[in-house]
């Protein structure tokens, strides 16, 4: 039993040092040095916070907006996560077929040409981004709904397309909320 | 730039960064655990907790100290969860139910971080920061201590003393884990990871829906979660969540963090045994296993081209790199969801854990795990040439081999018996999300992950049931502490020996021959044990 005394006492000390002092100190640094980022990179529209640039929103069904990826949790940050369906499961096959038909119809493209990220749900369920291919697929629909030329919308997409970081990290991508806000702001 | 070239460049940069850190960090850790001097803050700690820092312990005492510390950790974490509703910053969340609280306490104390709960809807900030994250630090420090104690078994002779657990623990936290975590946490915030104590904020989205923007001390926890090869996400989506892992740079940085200490410890090992090339051989073995799996899983996933469960900003190469690194380090954090990988890739991830978490394994546990396998390798080589095997100038006698055999048999026994029990009853089977071979893979993955203290999941399995909370909780405790006690017993046995001089008949344990032997033994032990069940589950799915 001789080891339990030190064990209890060191656990109390560590809880104070690592569980209270450490996170508070990091919070202090974060709040001072990176205030916006530490608080969730919030974005505003006419002075009101409408979301976070890192958290996707559901736009599916609206013709005037670009849509994000399918989400297993309906873009609810209180229920993040993936579908966890097996690739060859009937459940996933059915969902993919449904999404393919829906996207093809909404965007007026051949079902075989629907972008992969329009078919498969994200890992987090709040993925803020889509591939440039999926954005391009939606350009004509959004342009028509807003009475804009495809070239205008395409220019906005290009402005909101990020390449790979440092040229080789990650994937090229388009932030859907930022793009939709820019659309609203320009018209 | 083509996808495959970008993916290769990313792996190259990762290896370069780890290579640059390997020598200084490994040497630094070697100094930490050999220095005679105590820092002022450490001396104060020893006085407060009432231990003599210069009193070395015999292996049974060292082991009892590890167990006592871990028992206290489980009890404290269990109690914190059970009184959550009365703690500040709890976001109005209720007390965690008993079975789940036990499972989570066992999970974080064993460095597993299996999560049968969803972070954002179960755990308040105090339980996360003052409970879970504290165990992220100290469970990694326990692994570090046991690895150092085993190295002392090789380097000391004719003694029964292995060092002092409390000193190793405190130094591991104060001199290694905490400073690195501070730096890592700040880098993560700069990348966009959140770090606040704000309540959840409800906003109205562009389409007029309500959306809750979550907060929390995320970056501080994320840093040690990766660095300590823990893996428990602040949020359910783990490192796929943009608040934990905002972009491609933070992603590669996370993979770097989770590989950093297991890799650097091979240098520490080489330094401490007085022959750096011994550590290089171990590192080469780990790198070989990791590299083969990175190439295989990346190629398979790029070939399939499906994106279910992956994030747009990471894509397939970064997801596959992360998946192999996290299953090979006992970390278990994920940036994509393994359940939706192809059948064969999923099987390789399960096998990666089944190697015993040695490619390169968890903090400390990877090193002591592979050193145990190294003893098997020299034993097998000794049988081939008919000589008494030796490793690092210590004889491998019957006593050492018994301890080593029990050590490597514990994990497969718990995994296979646990999976067997779960498959025998209808209630545990009904937790499966997918049917067919993938359902078996979900259960196998759960026991493999728990027993190897990994923590990742084929997360379709509804694991928050009384059966899984208890069974996996027990699997985590057995998978962690039985090997730890046997490893310390091995260290005690080795430390008592007189070193034998190297002779012409000694198998050199620092060349390519030994690397191939060690990798071969590691793969053969795992493959023979797990091939039947992998064939029934993931490989059957992949070949269908």
TrEMBL record, chain B:
**Is Nucleotide-binding among the key words of this record?**
no
InterPro entries, per the entry? KdpA
Q: Where in the cell is it found?
A: Cell membrane
Query: Could you list the residue ranges that cross the membrane?
Result: 61-80, 87-109, 129-151, 172-195, 252-269, 281-300, 366-385, 406-427, 470-492, 513-535
Q: Which Pfam families match?
A: KdpA (PF03814)
Lipid bilayer topology: Multi-pass membrane protein
Instruction: List, alphabetically, the GO terms of the cellular component aspect.
Output: plasma membrane
Q: Name one GO molecular function term.
A: hydrolase activity
Q: Does the keyword Disulfide bond apply?
A: no
Q: Which UniProt keywords apply?
A: Cell membrane, Hydrolase, Ion transport, Membrane, Potassium, Potassium transport, Transmembrane, Transmembrane helix, Transport
| Major place of residence | membrane
Function of the molecule: Part of the high-affinity ATP-driven potassium transport (or Kdp) system, which catalyzes the hydrolysis of ATP coupled with the electrogenic transport of potassium into the cytoplasm. This subunit binds the extracellular potassium ions and delivers the ions to the membrane domain of KdpB through an intramembrane tunnel.
Family according to the record: Belongs to the KdpA family.
Q: Which NCBIfam families match?
A: kdpA (TIGR00680)
Quaternary structure annotation from Swiss-Prot or TrEMBL: The system is composed of three essential subunits: KdpA, KdpB and KdpC.
Q: What is this protein called?
A: Potassium-transporting ATPase potassium-binding subunit
Organism the protein comes from? Nocardioides mangrovicus
Which classification does the entry list for the species?
Bacteria, Bacillati, Actinomycetota, Actinomycetes, Propionibacteriales
